[in-house]
Amino acid sequence: MFPDHGHRRIAVASPDDIATARRIAAERAEGVLAADEAARLDRLVAALAEHALGRPDGTLLIARMRSGAGVECLAYDRDPATTEPPAPSEGDAPAGLGIGLETVRAQADRFHIHVTPGIGSALLARVLRPGADDAPPADAMVQTGAVMVERSGGEAARGGPFIDHWFVRCAPARGGDGPCGIALMIDGDTVAGGIAGVNPEGADVYGPPRYPPTVMTPGVIRQVETVVAATVPGLPAPMVVNAIRRDLKGRPELGLSEDRSLAQIGRAAVAVLRFDAKAVDYTALGTVAGAVVRPQELTALGARWALIGFNPLAPAAVHLLWGPGDHVVLYTGGCARLPALFIRRDLRMVEPTLAALVLLRDGAVCDDDHTVLVLRNRADQVPASAV
Fold first, then answer.
1. Helices (H), strands (E): how many in the chain?
2. 97 near 85, Cβ under 8 Å?
3. Domains 8-128 and 142-386 agree in fold
C-alpha cells in the first residue's frame, strides 16, 4: 500500500483530473484536518488544479504530512514560456501570480514558489491543523524535505507493494555531545530480474542469472526503521547497517532467519546517514546516490555494491564536513545528477521540500518509484542552550 505521507501524483489534463485531485485531498485530510480546514484545502486544490490544467505537464502531488501537522500540496509544470515573476511589492509575498495562484496563497498556511525561466514553475502549499507548526523543532540540527512518488500504474505495474522509504530523526545534546541525527533511505525492489540459466528446451542461455524474488516487505521496512531509530547517537553508520542485518536475521516472524532468505532482500538498497553540526557519516549498500552540496561545490556520497544479506564485511563509510546552510541530497534509482542540478537550479535558499520537487521534475530519467530527500544544515539556528 502506498503510504499516506507519499505524494499521490495527478497529471492534470482534463476537468476529471481536477475532481480526482479534490477527492485525493479529501482522503488525505480525513482524520487530520477539521471541517473548516478541509474545506479550505478543497478550495486550494481546486484552484491549484485549475492553474495546472492550462500548463504543459501540469501536475499535482498531494500527501499527508509525515508529522501529522496537515496536508501538503505540490505542483509543477514544464512550461518553456515561464518567466521570472515581478519583484514582491511588500515583504516576501510573491507578486504577479495570477488569480488562481493568489487564491492558493490566500487559502494556504504555508506557500512557496520557485520559478526557472524557460523551464517551468514549482510550488508548495500546506494547510495545517489549528495550532500545528511545520517548522523544524528549535533544537533540530537539520530542516528536512522529501518527495516520494510511485511509478505510473502503481502496484500492478510494479508487481508488488511500494517499498521505498525514508526516515529522519534528530537527537538533542547528550553529555559532551551536541545535537545530532540520523537519516535512513530504502530504495525498494519487488521484481525479479535477469534471465534464467536454462531455457525450457534445456539449452544454456548466457547472461546474468535470474535474481530470486525479493522478500523486502512493508513489515521488514518498519523493522529496519525501528532498529535505526533505536541506535545510540554517534554509532557509526556502518555499525547501524550491521545492526540492521543482525536484527533481521534474528526475527523468524519476518521469514529472514536463514542467510539465503536474508539475501533475497535483493536489490532493495539501504543508505544510512549520521550527522551533527560539523560532519556527516554515510554508508550505502546498493543504488542510493547522493552528495553534500555546498555553494557552487558538491562532494559525492559513494555507495558499495552489496546487499543487506550478501556482503558480510562491514560496509564502507564516507566522512565529510558540512556547515550551516550546506545540504545533503539523497535519491533513489531512476534519477540522475541531482546534486549538480541542485546548484544549477539555485536551490540553496529554497524550502527543502520544494527543492526536492524541482529536482524530481528535472532529474527523473525514467518512470519509476522515486524518493528525493533534502537535508539542510541549520546548526546556526539551534539555540546555544541546546548545543
1. 9, 15
2. yes
3. no
CB of 113 within 8 A of CB of 94? yes
Q: What are phi and psi of 212, to 5 degrees?
A: -70, 155
The answer to whether the beta carbons of residues 322 and 294 sit under 8 Å apart is yes
Homologous superfamily of the 142-386 domain (CATH): PPM-type phosphatase domain (3.60.40.10)
- The domain spans of the chain are 8-128, 142-386
The set of residues, in sequence order, having a beta carbon less than 8 Å from that of 27 and lying 6+ positions away, is: none
Backbone angles phi, psi at 19, to 5 degrees: -65, -40
**Cell numbers 522509504 label which residue?**
165
pTM here?
A: 0.87
Q: For 344-386, what is each residue's pLDDT tens digit?
A: 999 999 999 999 999 999 999 998 889 999 999 999 998 876 5
Q: How far is CA 189 from CA 37, 214, 294, 311, 333, in A?
A: 37, 7, 31, 18, 10
Which CATH topology does 8-128 take?
A: Heat Shock Protein 90 (3.30.565)
